[in-house]
């Protein structure tokens, strides 16, 4: 049985990155903790992952980078669309969907 987990993302200046804008989890609730725990669960038991915490951190950075790239592409050719949506399907069947919170609210449950 697949499950969709919605992760709200914002594009803005990250104080840790100076004046550089980028994608960040819009963590008004528990979404960031949910993202990390979902990735941790998906990675457990894989022998090639020796440092689970580092793998989760790296995966979050990679996913946000992919969202940034998709968002830039959407910005250049958005036509009549309402936002950028990035979906990541995990091996266990779970789907992580990243988008602006307003866009996520418009997606089916």
Adjacency order of strands in the biggest sheet: 2-1-4-3
Structural class by SSE content: alpha+beta
Number of helices: 3
Strand-residue fraction? 15-25%
Q: What would the principal axes of the Cα set say about the shape?
A: globular
How far apart, in Å, are the first and last alpha carbons?
15 Å
Number of domains: 1
Low-confidence stretches: none
Tell me roughly what share of residues is in helical segments: 40-55%
The helix/strand series, from N terminus to C terminus, equals EEHHEEH
Radius of gyration: 14 Å
Average pLDDT, rounded to a whole number, is: 87
Count of beta strands: 4
Structure write-up:
This protein is an alpha+beta fold and 109 residues long. It has one domain. It has helices spanning 31-43, 52-76, 101-106; strands spanning 4-13, 21-25, 85-89, 95-99. Strands 2-1-4-3 form a four-stranded mixed sheet. Helix 1 packs across helix 2 (52-76). The longest helix is centred in the middle third of the chain and has 25 residues, at 52-76. The protein starts with a strand and ends with a helix. The model has no long low-confidence stretch (mean pLDDT 87).
Provide a quick synopsis of the model.
This protein has 109 residues and is α+β, with helices and mostly antiparallel strands.
Helices and strands in order:
Elements: E1 4-13, E2 21-25, H1 31-43, H2 52-76, E3 85-89, E4 95-99, H3 101-106
Parallel strand pairs: 1-4
Antiparallel strand pairs: 1-2, 3-4
């Amino acid at each position: 049985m697949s499950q969709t987990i919605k992760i709200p993302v914002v594009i803005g200046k990250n104080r840790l990155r100076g004046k550089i804008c980028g994608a960040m989890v819009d963590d008004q609730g528990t979404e960031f903790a949910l993202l990390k725990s979902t990735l941790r669960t998906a990675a457990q038991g894989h022998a090639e992952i020796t440092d689970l915490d580092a793998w989760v951190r790296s995966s979050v950075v990679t996913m946000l980078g992919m969202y940034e790239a998709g968002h830039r592409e959407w910005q250049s050719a958005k036509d009549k669309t309402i936002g950028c949506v990035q979906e990541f399907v995990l091996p266990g069947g779970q789907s992580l969907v990243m988008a602006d919170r307003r866009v996520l609210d418009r997606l089916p449950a």
